[in-house]
Structures are given as structure tokens and as C-alpha cells.
Amino acid sequence: MLPTTLSKDTIIALATAAGHGAIAIIRLSGPEAISIVDEVFKGKKLANQPSHTLHFGTIRDGEKILDEVVVSLFKAPASYTKEDVVEVSCHGSPYITEQLIKLFLRKGARLAEPGEFTKRAYLNGQFDLAQAEAVADLIASDSALTHQVAMKQMRGGFSQEIKALRAQLIHFASMVELELDFSEEDVEFADRSALRRLITTLQQLIFDLLKSFEMGNVLKNGVPTVIAGKPNAGKSTLLNALLNEEKAIVSDIPGTTRDVIEDEANIGGIRFRFIDTAGLRETQDTVEAIGVSRTKEQLKKASLVLYLFDVTSTTPEQLNAEVAQLELPQVPYLLIGNKKDLATPAQLESFEGFENLVFLSAGNKDGLSELEDNLLELVHANEAMTGDRTIVTNLRHFQSLQKTADALQEVLQGLDTGLTGDWLAADIRRCLFHLGEITGEINTDDLLDNIFTKFCIGK
Ligand code: GDP
User: Fold this and answer.
1) I want to staple 271 with a disulfide (CB 3.0 to 4.6 A). Which of 78, 132, 154, 222 is the partner?
2) For residue 372, how far is its CA from the centre of ligand 1 (angstroms)?
3) Is 38 annotated as a binding residue?
4) What is the pTM of this model?
């Protein structure tokens, strides 16, 4: 549990990653931040300096110089936490940072809890809860798309959408509640058909947001891409080529890729999670049989399927049969004719007319960049990933949106059955409550602890 009397304490943490580096930054925030540093900083008196200035000097423990540092000064409320903040940039040695932090602790600071700087920023009104959560997502982002989504959320895009929805509902809630004050007179301030229109519009918007969560997850965790095909088609070789390393076991004994191998590659700013599978075929071998059933399992989870076949030993008829046997669910797929280096022109031509088909040679990486282009095209063809659409990536937001959707449905049912204003108002309030949970207009200590303890210390 984080302390609730936040502003009394001055907190401290290492803001940069642990370990050796060119520099390290120690951050202090709180009412004593400036005076604590002033006590041990030999240079200008920080309390007398204007905000947003840098100061060179030494940090001393008594007569002993611990380091030469540059101090950055941010005076309340013009700082991340809206409190007085001092950042001490020192030499990036774990020994030095430890000595400095111990010294500041002795002078009255206390160690920050995980996420406590950001929690203070939120509690002091720097941003709302969804934006605060996006800070953690931004730090965790590792591809162009996760970065873009987190950045948009941090800058308030998602919050604005939620707040606009709430504002419209608040208007109706107050109209319905106004009616209650005039209950004797049987008046309707809230136009029921306009309310119904608003609810259906909101439902559609929330439905889109809920749907985007699936894509949000894909963005965060990587596009699950299954590599399937008969034994010896070259799946492991292709996986190695895509990953550029020797992770999967390559062998020319059919059926040696027994386990499902997963690995990730960042292609064109999108993270792909490649799943290599054992060959798809009916088999008596019990170990291999497990592999085959796993392949079918994996296919169900795939967002993309790469179906690999050996062009030198597969006829178009066989390929058709194999594709049919796959019982592919409705996921985008690519057919990959591998080993084109061994194929005759006639063999390649025989596959004319197949859609979504590319030839390559996984063995010598010929055609790999075309394959990567095709992969990106398939992902971008999914409209949820293109354009400016808001994508929900956070499970907590997803759950609150689901509860909002349920409550909206009840408002609609209430309208259908001519529910009285007081019940209608209660259902609308419930929608408002769940929407408010997302941006933190509604919060509890437990909720905040749950969110901020997942942050790293120092953020
Ligand atoms: P898997 O069973 O589908 O995983 O197939 P592997 O990746 O183990 O490959 C089977 C055999 O085909 C290995 O001997 C590979 O070296 C070979 N192979 C894979 N790709 C190519 C290719 O593009 N050209 C040629 N000539 N051989 C390949």
C-alpha cells in the first residue's frame, strides 16, 4: 500500500537503468527535494535558482567528495510530479549511485515505491489514469506500432474519446434526474428517442474499442504467425532465416521438428511471433502425432499462416489438397513455394493461378525480403492496424468498457420496457462509473496500487 499523505514525503530513486553507464540520474521529488540536495551539494545554492536550470558542482559527504554532478532543477508545479523535483546526473557507476542515494536517504528522503513518481503526477493532476498507464506502455514499447499506440494514449487521444462519450451521457443523466424532481408533473426533459440514438451510437463506438483490444493484444505481444507445411518443406530453415539465427533444429529427417518453436522478429516496425510446427500429416508415430495435433491447435490461434511447400515435390493438385486438409480458419494466409533454387521453370509455372503465393528459397534467403513485404501487406490489410484508430491495449480498460457495454444494454432495455426515470438514471450512472474508471475520474486506493506497483521504481 502506498502512503496516502504523498506530498509530505520526499521520494528518491535511480531513474536510469541499473548497471554501469556513461551517466546515471537520481531523481528526488517532494517538498524537501531542493533542501536535501542543497545540504550536500557544493555549488550554487539551489533554493535561490530559477526552475529549469542546470548546475554543476560536487556532492560531498562531510569532507569526502562522492562525485562531480550536474543538477537539474524543476520547481513545483512545473515538473513531472508537479512537486519540486531535482535530478542529479552523476557518473554511471552502481557504487557512486548507491553512495549518493544512501546520503540523500540519511538527509531525509525515502525510497520511492514502484511507479510512485507517476502516481504523484496523476494525483496532482498532471494527467489522467489512462495517460499514466500509457507511460508504462511507452517504456515497454519495442516496435514502431506499440510505440505509436502508447504515445497516442499518453498524449490523451484515448482519454479524450472516453471523456467525450461520458460528457454526452452526463447530459442525459442530468436531464433524466431533473425529471425526478418534477415527478408529480409527468414531464420528460430527456428526449427518449434522442437518448436511444445516443445509446446505440455509444454501443457501436464501444464495440469498436472492444474489438480493437484483440488487435491491441496482437500489437503488444506480436502477431501470432504459424509456419505450417509438410515435413521437410523447409519450415525450420525459413524460421531461422527470418530470425537470422539458428534456433530451430534443421535436419533432413522428416518429422524432426517435434516441438512447437516460438520466436519473435521485428519486421517493418511490427512484431511477429513465429510459431514453427511439426509437419502436418497423419502418422502412427505417437510423438509426432502430438506434433500434428499441436499444429492444428496453433492454427486456431494464428493471426497469420505461412503454408510452406516444397515446389520440387508438390503438384498443384497436391497443394490444393493440402490447403483443404488444413481446414484453415478464416485467417489471412500465404502459400510459400520453397526451394525455388532446385525448381525447373515448368514447375514454377504450374502454380500459376494460385492466389497469395510466393516462391522463395529459404536455404539461401533468396526472396526473403519479398516475403517480408507480403507479410506486412497482410497485416496492414487489416484495417484495425492502419490509420489513426484508437486501439485498446490495456486489459483493465477492456474490462471497464465491457461493463459499460453491459450497462448501456440495460439502458436500452429500460427504454424498451418504459422503465421509470429513477431506474434509467441508475443505469446511466453505472455507464458513467465504468467509463470514469478508465480515465481515473473514479478510482480507489486498491485500483491505484494495482496499477502503479507494476511500474518500475524510478518512474
Ligand atoms: P522442415 O521439416 O519443414 O522444418 O524442413 P527443414 O527446414 O528441416 O528443411 C528440410 C531440408 O530442406 C533441409 O535439408 C534443408 O537444408 C533443406 N532446405 C530448406 N530450404 C531449402 C531451400 O530453399 N533450398 C534447398 N535447396 N534446400 C532447402
Assistant:
1) 222
2) 19
3) no
4) 0.68
